[in-house]
Amino acid sequence: FERIIGLTASPGSELEIINEVCKNLFSKKIELRTENDKDVKPYIHKINIENITVDLPKEFKEIKKYLEISFNSKKVKLKSFGYSLNSNNKKEILNLQFSLQKQILKGEKDFEVFQAISLVAELLKINHAIEMLETQGLKSLDDYLTPLFEKSSMHKSKAVKNMVLDPNIKSAYMKSKSAIEGKIIHPKKVELLKIIKNEIKKNPLTKIIIFNQYRNSAKAIESELNKIEKINAKLFVGQAKKNGTGLTQKKQIEIINDFKQNNYNCIVSTSIGEEGLDIPNVDLVIFYEPVPSAIRSIQRRGRTARHAEGKLLILITKNTRDEAYHWTAFHKEKRMHKLLSEIGNKVQLEKQPTLN
Questions:
Q1: Which parts of the chain are beta strand (E)?
Q2: Average pLDDT value for residue range 100-110
Q3: Which DSSP letter does residue 45 get?
Q4: What sign for the dihedral angle of Cα 150, 155, 160, 162?
Q5: What is the per-residue pLDDT for 352?
Q6: Contact at 8 Å (CB) between 342 and 334?
Q7: How far does Cα 255 stand from its chain's mean position?
Q8: What 3 state SS string does 101-148 have?
Q9: Which residue in 48, 68, 163, 248 is deepest, having the highest Cβ count within 10 Å?
């Protein structure tokens, strides 16, 4: 008879997801291995992990205060329509949005449901604005808000129109413009440039990957890095054309080959670099921001220490989403290992029909 083995670095951190994978692959047994297992340990290269923390500047905190006042006022209004949120978590907001849209599809044309949908759309936009400010910087926030303000009259969305009329959002927008003029930048970018300069000084042959979730931010980082002597950085993004960026599959492969041949020594990558592509081993991986996914964190981390000892640096802004996302991914990964250990040989599958 034939035996099939399936391997994955990250099957998921929820029991339902792991069970679904097992069912779809007709798995009868699960074997878990970590870097500490004796049959794995001899083949694992050490990853030196360091969290680099920075403080949010006072100018950022002032802007954030206005955004949060607006956000909380929308939450209060939403509650008056009978819908409440227990947290400011994006996932919870999206779940509420999905629930409201289902009500509309079922034919509930209640005025309050439509009002609630509009408020939830505003909450998502403000939430995103806060995330841009906290994790990326003023330029990313401005890139997000400016089109909303400049094209609000053309927008069909009531949420956008209401948002740009909000005095707190206006104040946040004007203060961000002023701070940009004052050349105030996110301390993570300052720290990143310092790290890259030190690394290239210590070892001119070092290879680096920087992960950033957002194309605009990644593109700005690429531009700053290429001002550093002996750094030849390249933006690495997906195929979809967004804001003037987008790489064909052929171009992606070309960049990877150039990286292998040392034509580039630094890649600034969005999520496209996390999986599925044969990116060569690198000496240093940097997370410009943590991601709240165990799977994505594992995949990012796996880009280093493939053939020799590697280093991972995670940039975290204190008391922001950066910290929350970092610990979310950490606990999800621990939960995944615990679940896999518990499931072990207990995988029970329904009997499946044969081809006959």
A1: 47-54, 208-211, 233-236, 266-269, 284-287, 310-317
A2: 82
A3: P
A4: positive
A5: 57
A6: no
A7: 22
A8: HHHHHCCCCCHHHHHHHHHHHHHHHHHHHHHHHHHHCHHHHHHHHHHH
A9: 163
Computed over every residue of the chain, the mean pLDDT equals 89
pLDDT for 356: 61
* pLDDT band, very low/low/confident/very high, at 21 (cuts 50, 70, 90): confident
User: Is the pLDDT at 48 greater than 90, yes or no?
Assistant: yes
Q: Taking a C-beta distance cutoff of 8 angstroms, is the pair 310, 45 a contact?
A: yes
Which pLDDT score is estimated for 1?
Answer: 60
pLDDT band with cut points at 50, 70 and 90 for residue 353: low
Write the Ramachandran bin of 262: left for phi over 0, alpha for psi from -120 to 50, otherwise beta: left
Residue 129 contacts by C-beta under 8 Å, 6 or more apart in sequence? 67, 141, 144, 145, 169, 172
| Residues 60, 133 contacting (CB under 8 angstroms) | yes
Q: Are 84 and 74 in contact (CB under 8 A)?
A: no
**Interatomic CA distance for residues 125 and 215, integer angstroms:** 18
pLDDT tens for each residue of 311-352: 999 999 999 999 999 999 999 988 888 888 887 656 555 555
Cα 18 to chain centroid distance, Å, stands at: 22
C-alpha–C-alpha distance, residues 171 and 173, integer Å: 5
Sequence-ordered list of residues with C-beta below 8 angstroms from that of 112, at least 6 positions apart, any chain: 81, 82
pLDDT at 348: 52
**Cα dihedral 212→216→222→228 (10° resolution):** -110
What three-state secondary structure class fits 305? Answer: coil
Q: Judge whether 7 and 316 are in contact, CB under 8 Å.
A: no
Q: Specify whether the backbone of 12 is left (phi greater than 0), alpha (psi in -120 to 50) or beta.
A: left
Q: Kindly state the percentage of the chain with pLDDT values over 70.
A: 96
| Chain mean position to CA 226 | 24
What six digits make up the tokens of 252? Answer: 């992606």
How many residues comprise the chain? Answer: 356
Q: Is the pTM of this model over 0.70?
A: yes
CA distance linking residue 133 with residue 64, whole number of Å: 7
Contacts of residue 144, defined as CB under 8 A and 6 or more positions apart, other chains included, come to: 128, 129, 132
**CA 107/CA 78 separation, integer angstroms:** 21
